[in-house]
Amino acid sequence: MLYFWLSAVDTIVSHTNIRLPARIERAAQWLFVTPALHAIHHSAVLDESNRNFASIFSVWDRLGGSYLAQPQPVRTGLEEFRESRYLTLPWTLALPFCTASPRERSPAP
Prior knowledge:
This protein has helices at about 1-15, 20-30, 35-40, 45-50, 60-65, 90-95. By secondary structure, it is an all-alpha fold.
């Protein structure tokens, strides 16, 4: 039960858009998954997005060989949804239900 609570809190924290001071970030990444460390997993660069899968403790990525220190800067998201109209609330809510990329067809939210 403790793991599930910690995992839920970690998921919320690691998906926030906050920046820790650099010194705290470097120290925290040795043990915990931080927002900056997890952001690499959401990178638009395939090699970066296939990294940093761990939850709660970053040591699992190091042991599994999937750890990647933060490159600068991280460009997140999908290339096919870079247009500003896809960054609106209606599109943000509708995108998980779209079956085709906007280049193939433009689904309405």
